[in-house]
Every structure is written in structure tokens, then in C-alpha cells.
Amino acid sequence: MGDPVQLKDEGNKHFQAGDIDKAIECYSSAIKVCPDKKMLAVIYRNRSACYLKKEKYNNAASDASKAIDVDAADIKALYRRCQALEKLGKLDMAFKDVQRCATLEPKNRTFLETLRRLGAEIQAKLKTTFSTDSRVQNMFDILLDDEMGKENKEKAANNLIVLAREDAGAERIFQNNGVPLLLNLIATGKPEMILAAVRTLSGMCTGHKARAMAILHMVGVDKLCSVMAIDDEEIALAACNLFQCINDSLTGGDKREYGKEEALVLDASKDLKTILLSLLEMVASKKVSGHGRDQALNLLSKNVPRKIRKEKDNSRTLFTIDHGLKKILKVCGQVPELPDQLPLTENTQLIASVLLNKLYDDLTCDPERANFKDICDEYIKSKIDPKDMDKTIHAVNTISGLLQGPFDVGNALVGHQGIMEMMVALCGSERDVDQMVAVEALIHSSSKMSRASFFITNGVSLLKDIYKKTKNERIKIRALVGLCKLGSAGGDDYSLRQFAEGSTEKLAKQCRKWLCNPQIDTKTRKWAIEGLAYLTNDADVKDDFVEDELALKAMFELAKSKDKTILYAVACTLINCTNSYDKKEIIPELVQLAKFSKQHVPEQHPKDKKDFIEQRVKRLLKAGVTSALAVMVKADNSILTEQTKEMLARVFLALSENPRDRGTIVAEGGGKALIPLALEGTEAGKVKASHALAKIASISNPEIAFPGERVYEVIRPLVSLLHTDRDGKQNYEALRGLTNLAGFSEKLRVKIVKESALPDIESYMFEQHDQLRQAATECMCNLVTCKEVQERFLQDGNDRLKLLVLLCGEDDEGLQTAAAGALAMLTAVQKKLCTKLTTVTLQWLEILQRLCLHHNPQIQHRGIVIVYNMLNSDDSELAKKLIESEMLEILSVIGKAEDSPKRQEALDAARACLVKAMDLGLIKPFTNTS
């Protein structure tokens, strides 16, 4: 046990010496052993001073309070608590403490000054607070006043939304009875009022767990669901965003430390479960609009399956399957042509299929997958009823939905006894709706070669029969798509044509005819594109299609329509037309071996050669493919699956192959559209999109290609292409893109450095491949004006500067230009590097002389600038060494040469060097004695 007085004195000594941590340690030890209350108060007061120094204001205030508890007139403790409270933002409490200090010592200037300052700050804060409160109240008064003009209401609504996006503003609305008032806005039933209220609530819930939870309880999940169920696309989307904001805040989007309040907001699992169950109820409810159902499915798709597969917990998926799988299957099975169906949009059933696929993919073992299949099987069996045709076609439509989602599950169901026979029987039904549903199911079930081969032998005659006999255009087009699909079963293998010569061209011609007919509804015309997606595997078909500008423009217009179920078919068609799918490398030796062993050898169509592909790309660009792709990229995230994103990225890459076409892509918004594709999706898709971005970034003005803040988002995808697992072409394009961006602004250079690109760029400067080495050196040349890059060259123990000097001595002029440019800029801004340059290699002077004598004016100018920088480096020995060498003669010869526009920069630089040498007293001016 130590002596408290001795420990206190030791603490005082440490405090005076500036060793605050030691002082705290001594005072803390003294507190543990001090029995005297008055002595204890002094020690607490002293430790409070230490915590103030350490900026631990909560601790400082707590210790000062303990001293004041013993002696209410302890003026030092009062003032220290005042200082701590002020730093914590508790101005009113700090004001009370300093007021007490001023009462005890009325003439103390420090107390009076603090009192005056805190008083002014409190008044300003109150003014702001009352001003904000009154503004909030005023906004609500305007919005709830029926006689107020529309313009004033819109302005008030926008102000409220903007205010809610700031944390302080959101808190003022919340504290100022804002939630009940927002509920009053919703109760008006006016769409613009509901939108304003929902968007304000979204702002209030973003990034604040406690407030999000409070708002959820005040508004209620049922109320939020009822708002999302309204038949208004904008309101449904806004309500979906509100749910997402709440979910993000409750599941970790809020990083605040709440202290003791944490216990009140810690467990959000019950609320999250309530939201999940409510969304599942919405999925199959007749009271929910099509737009509301879409957003409920989207929320489930985004938040239920695991985002990171490494996480082991997929309990939300299992819960959703147990409590909602049948409801999702019900949505897939809806047949809008029948009475008493759920309200749907054009996209609802595809969104449901995508959700089914994501749920199935999130399962981790065979028993979980077996349970999923069993529920689906049980549901289909419960709906098949020979006496009730409506129930039966519902079952068939559900299978179609599964075939578009988890294909394996749908395929297994099709294989069950009686299902295929039932689909064939429905094709012969007298009801159009039966035929239509059955044909669609047949088309979806033939997505795999094995299934297609079954239909080639059993279904072609059936589909041909339907196609010839039906008078219903909607059925006719679906039967045609079935035939298209069967006709393309061989892919792009010219030798595996399923139908007779010319048959696929006839089918494609009919598809184009339907596609261009505006009298036919969008959903039916969509099937024409579906047919072309299969038929364009044939090079004759794709060549005819891209020559038909009207058909191309019709497809692009449909791609921009509200019906986003069309996206996949459009993407497939474009992939085929640009030949941007993965191609297997044909090794001649293996081809010979296959022929010898009488195995099938794939053949390339003559129109699939490079010249034909380039012509097709030009026609697609002329028809406006880029603007269509830009609209497609903005589609709802659930419909724009990762596979579709990858296909769009592949098309963009094919379009940007020719540098002369990149301007067209930029002008139609292609640069902006590529950024999300490069940041999200499959690994292959991200690489393809990044490569296309690199091609555009390498030759475009970044301000035009990527307007605003988007340009900073381009850098990360380009840096990702520098990794060694990417191919040389991708490395090269990325380096060229980064070179262009680095030459544009200091902010972009700093961003490139922050993305840790420097080590990769430096490694390519050592590359044996000439083009890669030159591209990397050019990139470094544009980066050296950045302070952080200069510091890397200043560091000891590396070969960065040596490499640049040696690259200046290479034979490749492009490489020399870049290396000499980098060296010229570095020696201009960092004088230490001028001296360091002479120590990195014995060849430095020889290399420098070669630069100054170079026949290329650019390289010569850069070399002479390096010499000037060395003369100007404040290193008199270095300057003397240069002038005593042959460099003086070289500079003199260049300086005396006649002026020439081509070499003027080099001449002026040489003359500047000679003037500098004269200023340093190393040479004397020439004088004429005559």
C-alpha cells in the first residue's frame, strides 16, 4: 500500500514535467488508498486536469464532479468541469459552472471572459434551434394547409426532405413532433404529400439505429406496407427505399456509439423478423398493387440471401423458404388473362423468378435443397386438377417461373411423370390462354441441349402445327420462338444446323416483321426478340438483322420501355451480333486428331470473321445501341441479374474495340453506364467492363466521358486491371487510361495513389514487354508531380531513380521520352534528386549526354532541362562536374545554333543552361576584342 500524499506529490511532479500518463497513474493509485475525503477531492481535481490535457472530456467532467461533491465551492474543480462540459457540447451546464466561479471570484478575468463567450454561444445555438424548429413547423403548416398554392407546397416538401438528410435537421424534425405530422401528410391520400412524407422519413432513418427503430414503432410496419401497396410506382419505390434505410440502420449501417443508451437499441432482430413476415404477406396479397408487389419482392431479393458467401448463417433464407416459398410460387403462376388474379406489372413474375433463384443458390447442403424441391413439388401437385383447367395452367405457369429461376428445380418438375404430357395436351386445347401458357412452358423447358433434343424429335411437329393453325398472333409468335430455340440448338457451330438451309433465315424474317409492328402489344413483341436471341447464333441471321435498321431501332425502343423482362433477350441478341461470347481456342493439331478419329469438329461460319463483326458493330452504333445499353444498365437491380450485367459489359467491350467508335459511345452516355458494370456483378463481367472503361479513358477527355464526380469512380476498375492475373492487353489499356487521367488533374493523381496503384505501375516499368514498359513509364511521368510519388523517389534503398535513368538510355524513343520527362519534372521539384541521380549509376553522365544530343527534339529538350535542373540544384560540385565534362561543349554547340521552330525549346533550354553556368561563375561570357 502506498502513501496517498506521496503518490499525489509524485503525480504533481509528473504533471509539471508534461508526463500526463504517469501523472494519471499516480493519482489513480492515490485514489485507491486515500481515506481522507478532502485529500481525495484534491486528487480527483488534479486527475481531472490530466484528462483535460488528454482530451478525455467525459472522464475530466466525472472527476471534477467527484471533487465538487466534497466541496461545492471548489473553484478549480468547477472551472475544470466547465471546460470539459464545453468540449462535450453541453454549453448550458458549462455556463452554470463558470457562473458559480464568477460569483466566488467576481474580478477573475478568465471567468468573466468565459462567461461572456459561453453566453454568446448559447444565444446563437438557441437562435438556430428555434429557427430550425420554427422552419420545420412552418413547412408542416404549409403542407397541411389546403388553401396553400401547389408551388409553395412543393418547395416546403423539398425543404423538409433536404433537412431530413442532415443528421441535425433529422433530429430537429424528430424532436419537434415530426413523425405524427408526417403521418398526417400520408393520411391526406395525396400522392405528392405521401411522397414527401416517405422521403423525409427515409432521411431521418438513414444511418441512425435509435431513430430508425423509434420511427418504425411510431409508424408501424403495417402502415409502411400499406403505403408501399399503393398503386403508384413512385410511392412504392420511395416506401421500398424507406424499408431499405431502416433495414440498413438496424443491421449495422449505423456506426455510432450510444453508451448507456445502446441497451435500448441493441436488439433489432424482432423488428427485422416482423418486417420480413410482413413483406412475405404482401407478396401474395390481393390488396397489394403490382408496383408494391415488385418492391416487396425486390426487398426480399436484396436482403434475405447472404451478400457474402463466406458467412455461414443463411437462416433468413431458410425462414423465407418455410414461410414464403409457396407465396412466391403463387406469384409465378399467375395468368393475367384469367379472372381473379393478383395485380401484377410486366416485371413481377420475372422478379419472383430471380428471387427464387437467389434463395435456391443461397442453400448450403443437399437436405436444404431437397426441402426446397419438395415444397415446389407439393405446390405443383396441389394445383394440378384435370377438372379445373384454370388451376392446371396456374401449375404450368409456376413451372415456367421456376425454369426462369432455379432451372434445376423446374427441370426436375418437368421430368415428373405426366407433366410433359399435360403441357402437350394443353397445346391442343381450344382455349387460347391454355395454348399460350403451354407453349411458353415448352420454350422455357428446352433451355438445355438434352431437353432441346427431346423436343426436336417430339415437339417440332407440334409447334409447327400450332404455328400454322392458330389465328391468335400471340400464340403464333410463341410457337415461332419455340421453333427458333430448337433451330439454334447447335449454337454458332456452322456444321450443327438443326433445320434445312434457309429455314432459320425465314424464322428470323418473321420475328423481325413482328418486332417492327407497333400494332402488336409490347409483351408479344418481346417474344420476337426472344426468338432472335436464339436465331442470331446463325451468322446469316445476325448479318441480315443488323442491316435491318428499323428492326434494330424497334428492339432498342423496347429495351427502353417499362417492361424490363426483355433485357436478357436483348442482351443475348447483342452478344450474338457482336460475337462477344467466350470462344474456345481451336488448336489445329486437335482438329486434325478429331478428323482422324471421326469426331465432330466445330466449324466457324464465314460471316463470323473479323471484318463482318466490325461491320455489324458499326451498324449497331449507328442505330443507337449505346443509348439503349445506358438505359438497360439503369434497370431495377433484381431484373438486371449478374449474368445480364456480364453480357452488357461484353457488348460494351466489343463496341469500344475500334478507337474511332469510342467518341460515339461517350457521346451517348456509354462512359457513365460502364462504371456500375465495372463495380458490381460477376468477376468476368467486372473485368470486361473495366477493360472497356480503360479503352475509353485512354483516349477521351475525362470531363466529357465521365462528368462530375464519376471520374473518380473510374480509377478503381482501371487499377484492378493491373494485377498479374489479367492479360497483357488489359494491363496495357489500363496503364494508358491511368496515364490520361493522371495528366488531367492533381485530384485524380492523388486518387490513383490512394488506390495503391503505384507498386503495380512500378512493376510494369521493369516489364520485358516494350509496350507495357513504355505505358507504365508514361503513366509514372504524369504522376511524378504528385508529392507522395516524389517522396517514393527520395526514399533510400530502392532502384526507382536508377530505373528512370537507365530507361533514358534505352533505344525506344517513346520510352526515352517518358523517362526523360519524368526525370525532368522530378529534378525540377526535388533538388536532392539532382545529386542522388549521380550516385545511382556510373552511366548517368553518358546517358545525359546522349539525351542532349538526341535527334528527337522532344527528347533533346527534356535532357537539357535535366541538365539545367542539376545546375540549379545548389550543389556547386555537381554543377562544376557537369561544366568540366563534355556537356559544356554540347550545350555550346546547341546554344549557338540558328533558331528553328522544330528545335526552339531545346535551343532556349541550352542557352538558359549557359547563362546559369555564367551566373555560377563556372564559365566566362564570350567577348569580341575587335
UniProtKB/TrEMBL annotation:
Pfam families: UNC45-central (PF11701)
Keywords: Chaperone, Cytoplasm, Developmental protein, Differentiation, Myogenesis, Repeat, TPR repeat
Keyword Repeat: yes
Subcellular location: Cytoplasm, Myofibril, Sarcomere, A band; Cytoplasm, Myofibril, Sarcomere, Z line; Cytoplasm, Perinuclear region
GO molecular function, one term: Hsp90 protein binding
Domain (UNC-45/Cro1/She4 central): residue spans on this chain: 298-486
UniProt keyword annotation of Oxidoreductase present: no
Cellular component per GO, a single term: perinuclear region of cytoplasm
InterPro entries: ARM-like (IPR011989), ARM-type_fold (IPR016024), TPR-like_helical_dom_sf (IPR011990), TPR_rpt (IPR019734), UCS_central_dom (IPR024660)
Highest taxon in the source lineage: Eukaryota
Name of the protein this chain belongs to: Protein unc-45 homolog B
Listed GO biological process terms: cell differentiation; muscle organ development
Positions annotated as TPR repeat: 4-37
